Amino acid sequence: xxxxxxxxxxxxxxxxxxxxxxxxxxxxxxxxxxxxxxxxxxxxxxxxxxxxxxxxxxxxxxxxxxxxxxxxxxxxxxxxxxxxxxxxxxxxxxxxxxxxxxxxxxxxxxxxxxxxxxxxxxxxxxxxxxxxxxxxxxxxxxxxxxxxxxxxxxxxxxxxxxxxxxxxxxxxxxxxxxxxxxxxxxxxxxxxxxxxxxxxxxxxxxxxxxxxxxxxxxxxxxxxxxxxxxxxxxxxxxxxxxxxxxxxxxxxxxxxxxxxxxxxxxxxxxxxxxxxxxxxxxxxxxxxxxxxxxxxxxxxxxxxxxxxxxxxxxxxxxxxxxxxxxxxxxxxxxxxxxxxxxxxxxxxxxxxxxxxxxxxxxxxxxxxxxxxxxxxxxxxxxxxxxxxxxxxxxxxxxxxxxxxxxxxxxxxxxxxxxxxxx
Length: 422
Prior knowledge:
CATH class: Mainly Alpha
Number of domains: 1
Radius of gyration: 21 Å
Number of helices: 19
CATH topology: Na+/H+ antiporter like fold
Strand order of the largest sheet: 1-2
CATH architecture: Up-down Bundle
Order of helices and strands: HHHHHHHHHHHHHHHHHHEEH
Shape: globular
Structural class: mainly alpha
Strand content: under 5%
């Protein structure tokens, strides 16, 4: 069902001259908006089988039915996770460390403005709409807008053959840096929320260690990793078995994804992207000649099957019924506008010779990263209540959803209008 929804949504978007990823996300929204039709499908209710059974008319269901629904839920999430990790690995393969170094400072500037801008504007917007709430809530809403979903923008850049341009590399690099900065923002805001009820304060040692471990991991991955990678795959090339390049390359990507998460707390997509950057063509040249295919050509079909699952699940994670309240709709609309503006202005600091519209729109989508922020806010309790209530959650999720859909549409539009992206 997910694959079918992804393909139909992608096809509809392409016929409307929109990026396929926008249609895939919209298909997920449709799944979430029609629970009585698709209620049997396990991704439309975050409460799992019990919540799904309520939709289809049976709060108490036989254990075997609940077990069946749960058995369907887990594989879809695992496959979507594998798809987005492999997508980032493939994007990394299409570039290299020397190429990324050329846009390093530009990516840093874009990332900093792309975090500060939406956070300040989001905080101010939340104060204007929710004037009866607390500063911590306003701050957390702003924090939810500072993330950038690299996977969604990358999909559009790849569709338009712009991922390997300077502007494309700036967007990718800035989104990776955004992930590190986002971790610090999330940790800081969570610490402030905890301090607001007297249970503690911001642990600056923990914040410093998070940043230090992230920096150490990325530095080692892009230096020592480049030294080890050719030696590793030279050893793989001596194996006598057939079709050995793909499994070892994928294992390499997942190992770095796990390593970055375990030791530095980075999102797994950062480690996977780093693996692709490290693994240059020259490292696997002998294997590619022997097997008659490039590594990218081997990974691409897997990504084409699995990555759409992630985008459908992203859309399906929102309970659209909660958006019907006027105040929630107003919050979602204002946060959508400020979220787009806050990210778009980051394109102006990229530097001369780079496409401001491409970089600005490329930073707009939030996707899975913003959803993680909302989940953390929901898990923080103040006086027995969640930091962000159901209405605020719906408003923020609505804004994340809209920027996730509008972002790739805007990026695809400017790429179509720009004859040559630099």
